[in-house]
Amino acid sequence: MAQNDRSSRRALMDLPHEILNAITGELRIHDMARLAATNETIKAYIEPQLYCKMYTNIGTPQDTAGLVGLLKRRPEVVPMIKALVLDEYHPRYTRQLLAIAMPNLWCLLIQHEGQPVNVVSEEEKRTMNRNLVYQPSLKNYVFWIESTNRVPYTLSKEDAALFKQPAIDRLRLSNVDFLALEGVEETYLTHEGLENIKIEGSNYSPDTLKRLFFPSNALKDVDIHHWTEPPFSPALYLPILSSAAETLTILRLEWRYTRLNHAAGYDGLDLTAFTALRLLRIQPGVLFGPGGEGVTSYTTPSHPNLPNLIRSRLPPGLKVLLLESITMPPPAPGLKQLLFPMDIELIACMIEQKAQVAPKLKFIFLYYLEEMTEPEELYELADKHDMRLCGLYKSEISPISILRHLILNVGLICGDLGTMLSDGAAKIWRPMSMFRVMAN
Question: Which one of 85, 91, 252, 284 is at 20 to 30 Å from 79 when CA atoms are compared?
């Protein structure tokens, strides 16, 4: 019997790795752990898969403190870890975790629901920060506090050390107040290879934002999301972003229903220096100016030179334009709103005079379709001028994510993208409203 057991184990491990991976990939974590316990040969093969991606479970022995204890008891597991998903942020145990050198850690996702515990003094944080180590492979870093009332979680100056990981090229900060970063040196955060940054529902100043942006010389994708108004005038974002004018490919300023009440004299964002920009998501008033006393904008009736205004704001290589919250203010629930005449005039000008104002522009998307009556006359106008115009629902995120992927990773030109959409890919997306006009 013992001989048969050894033969079975040898037969299992003699299988090609592709087949073994297919088998173990179907197993639950507990089943993989039981299989690894059968013998040392199988254990050596299974454990790198078992510990490759590790999760915590708040309120159980498998929380962040438990994970720290496991790694201290079994240091041979540390090099196997490539991704950590923490469902809590604890100021003490997160620091203890980041004091362990994990040479292959590629992704760290910290996602906490509610307000984190604040049981650690600033002095204790300062002491523990001295033990934090550089994680050489850490590229993807997410710090996400899920607040039920959208009140950002306040970071302190000593929390800046949590983000001092120079290898990061993708950073996401959600629902945090990081104004305290003003207290650190401008060169403290040295993310020179940062390519992708997403900031949502957070509070910051121009100086703190600059500390995240300025060190990078490779920034390609910036997404700044606010449910209402940004914390300062849109005009102050331009000098911060300007350091990435030659590399930035995607810019999403998702500021829903921004009224720009604090932006007296604001006349829009001049993005003409952003020569690499291909996809832009922005509210029309933020891009072209909201108008007002003494300020000419696209909202001015019968604008004297609307084509020049558009040409002086749009990036020269822009291919995809997403107009955020074009129905502003939103209508009452159950009602739909017609586009304002000024918005119709703006979109019609970009379509009819495309060759003069935006020669590479191919797609225009309008948010949000559930709040507006579809502008059928503009759809027809776009068809006549070989443009693609459509409205998007709030739920239609995936197509934009796919376009983002294509622009960043495939580098398709508009002609290639149009051909692709008219062939196989369009068949996948066709049920969605956006492709009623995008498909050729």
Answer: 91
